[in-house]
Amino acid sequence: MRTDADSIARSVLLPAGAGVARLIVCERSGRWAVAMRRELVADGIRVHETRSLAECWEVLAAAPGSFVVVELTPANAETLLGRMAWLHSEFPLARITVVADRGLAAYEWLMREAGAVYFTCSPRRLGPAARLVRRHLDQVPSPPQSVVERIWASLPWGNDEARIL
After folding, report:
1. Mean pLDDT for the chain overall
2. What digits encode the pLDDT tens for the residues 38-58?
3. Residues 74-97, buried b or exposed e (16+ Cβ, 10 A)?
4. Interval 82-98: pLDDT, tens
5. Structural domain boundaries, residue 59
6. How far is Cα 128 from Cα 10, in angstroms, rounded to an integer?
7. Looking at the domain assignment, is residue 164 inside a domain?
8. CATH of the domain at 34
9. What would the 3-class secondary structure string for 100-149 be?
10. For residue 143, is it within any domain?
11. Distance of CA 2 to the CA centre of its chain
């Protein structure tokens, strides 16, 4: 039954050539990515870091089913809200968590209203976000694969992105 649902979701929601869903962390400093790695170390989930919203959306366009963790700053608040307003129409399978410094805690409900599935101002409180990441990456449909890609994916080392075909 899951296979049928996957094929329908793939054909409707994932464009041809879409990459495998990933965890994307968009921030300037790297502290949130370090905290996410710490939470997800046992799961083997790789963190893909970006340094700007534009770069983040480029990576998201290549893997539209991804989970995004983005840092809210006073400088990017307006741009982030604008992008979040279109997130579900542009990338219906993507989910977003917003992280921020404590001084921006008042933005929590605005960000949640804009579509954030989680909001935190503390790297120590990323446990719930990590659970959301695990669940999302387990449930998002995988993009269509060629026969060769399916064979590689079924091998014990099949998830190694560095392999040469």
Report:
1. 87
2. 999 999 899 999 999 999 999
3. eebeeebbebbeebeeebebbbbb
4. 999 999 999 999 999 99
5. 20-154
6. 27
7. no
8. 3.40.50.2300
9. ECHHHHHHHHHHHHHCCCEEECCHHHCHHHHHHHHHHHHHCCCCCCCHHH
10. yes
11. 22
- Kindly state whether residue 134 falls inside one of the protein's structural domains: yes
Is position 8 within any domain?
no
Nearest CA among 32, 24, 28, 18 for reference residue 136: 24
Q: How many CA atoms lie within 13 A of 4 on its CB side?
A: 1
Helices 31-40 and 127-139, interaxial angle, to 10°?
Answer: 70
The domain total for the chain is 1
* Token pair listed for 94: 């993507």
Amino acid at 159: N
Tokens 């921006």 — which residue?
Answer: 104
Decide if pLDDT at 10 tops 70. no
Contacts of 107 (CB under 8 A, 6+ apart): 72, 77, 98, 100, 119
